[in-house]
Amino acid sequence: MRRRSTARLLVPASAFAGFRFPREVILLAVRWYLRYNLSYRDLEELLAERGIVVDHVTLYRWVTRFTPLVIDAAQFTRHAPGDRWFADETYVKVAGKWTYLYRAIDQFGQVIDVMASQKRDLAAARRFFVRALRQGRPAQVTTDRAASYPRVLDELLREVQHVDARYENNRVEADHGRFKARLRPMRGLKRFRSAQIIGSGHAFVQNIRRGHYELATETNGHLRLAAAFDELADAV
């Protein structure tokens, strides 16, 4: 008589499986790097002072691997963006070459999306808005006077009000400055992928601290980010 086989429930392995350090240490390093103006060597030194000996190359690998995973794990807790968007592109240096970073925020300061691009053209602007529209649809979009924006908005968001008056986009330009301040200790980025990951990670941390996620909502503001990462640890 043949025995009936017993089906096994396949549980996805944790992303931390196989790593020598526990997830608490890895997420602490990722959180500190995204939150504070640190280089990887600064982070290496701070951890060493706490008895955690890990080299800066490993820290880089942690940040690039786990930042997208944490962002994805938090997606279902994210607030919908407001109906007024402010979109613009800034630039960062990657491997000695200027790379563009498209960014958009809403009227409440939530960063809607970030996209790195090697070009600043119609195709890049279209890709950015296609990405951003996954989060919702605005009633009004404010941009600078780049020629690509009216064409993209007419194609994807014909019904919205488009504002391109001078100084109206200062809100997102000021927000660019916060990201640029984060980049200064890094002395430039070495890889294009890093521009996307660090840009998205910085926006993610900023959004949590501003209360745009249903994470650690009952926690004191100064501890919200740490508590949010603790909540997300089981989902990564």
TrEMBL record:
Pfam families: DDE_Tnp_IS240 (PF13610)
Coiled coil (UniProt feature): none
Cited NCBIfam families: transpos_IS6
Keywords tagged on the record: DNA recombination, DNA-binding, Transposition
Keyword Zinc (UniProt): no
GO molecular function: DNA binding
A Gene Ontology biological process term: DNA integration
Domain of life: Bacteria
Limits of the Integrase catalytic domain: 77-236
Name the record gives this protein: Transposase (Or an inactivated derivative)
Function: Involved in the transposition of the insertion sequence.
